[in-house]
Write a structure and sequence with these properties.
The chain is built from six helices and 14 strands. Among the domains are: about 150 residues, no CATH class; about 120 residues, Distorted Sandwich (Glucose Permease (Domain IIA)). The N and C termini lie far apart (about 170 Å). By secondary structure, it is an alpha+beta fold.
Amino acid sequence: MSANRSAVFGKRSEPHTFIIAHGDDIRHFTVRPWIFGIAGSVFAAVALGYLVATAYLVLRDDLIGGSIARQARMQQAYEDRIAALRAQVDRITSRQLLDQQLMEDKVAELMSRQDRLADRSGRLGQVIERAGAAGLTKSVPSPTPKPDQRASLAEATFSLAALSPQPEPAPASAADQSDRLFVSINRSLRDIESGQVAKLRSLTENAWTTIEAIDGAVKAAGLTLDVGDGKTGTGGPLLVDNPAGDFQAEVEELDVALNALDKARAVARRAPLGNPAPGVDLSSPFGSRTDPLLGTPAFHSGLDFRTPFGASIHATAAGVVVKAGWNGGYGQMVEIDHGNGLTTRYAHLSEVKVNDGEKVAAGAVIGKAGSTGRSTGPHLHYEVRRNGDAVDPIRFLKAGKRIADAL
């Protein structure tokens, strides 16, 4: 059995011969086994390649589809992100525009207040100048220098640039900073406005205080001071704190007070409140006394001033000279009419410096002291008469001394 197997297995196989007949034309060729092997291998390789290519194409389509899907998802995500960022930028830009408009409105308002304060300062300067001429600024604080807020306003304007589109906290911080700046500027401007109103009130109070002093002194001298439209009372409920209204009201009140003060001073200056012989003592008062020549009781109708011979004698108020010359026991005498029934007499002069009908100013030199007429030595006899009746001049002298600074 083994021998038979060996014979079969060891038998040589013959190659295959293919015969092709076409009419009389006969062809044949022999195919060797190895050719079958190669052909089979090529066929197998082609088939395998086809299968691999087919699988590759199928898988590639899946990969391409997946890639396209991923790219579509990424693109959608990017577009969503871009849309969100655009919405955020639009929101920031809108808020920036609103903040910028608001700040521009605030800057415009502050500029307007600055210009209004400048106008007020001009008016205040004129009022203070008038009050200074009236002698009311001695006890009033000096004007507070008006700061120029325009640099701060420019800084506030420049801070708007900080609101450019960026993460949200940054614009909010810049806006807060600008708001704080505006608050500071507003506070400064309000302080200036309050200072102006306070100064006007102080001047007005000084004016009315001066008027009251003049009124009290004149009344003490037995005269009446009528200042017309002057108002001495203030008060009422507090309604609204309006610096603009307060300023205008205070300016008007100060104008009224200054007008009243001018009138009060004019009235007081027409009264004989001055001293006819400054710096000298009295030698004889008004009223009953012993006559220096007869030694008997007598009425003395004026004041005697112990003046040296030739000393200058001054008019105690403005008026018109009604008599200048010799007048019996008065000797050389000057009589001045001051209006409102008031006249003054200056007697025993050594020299008369004025003429009848001449207008004289308060303090003008009207003569020289002497001892003419009924006199025992150089002195000035001074009288004040109301409607022709002699009154005590000492009251007028005291009143004039009390309000000398006010006049």
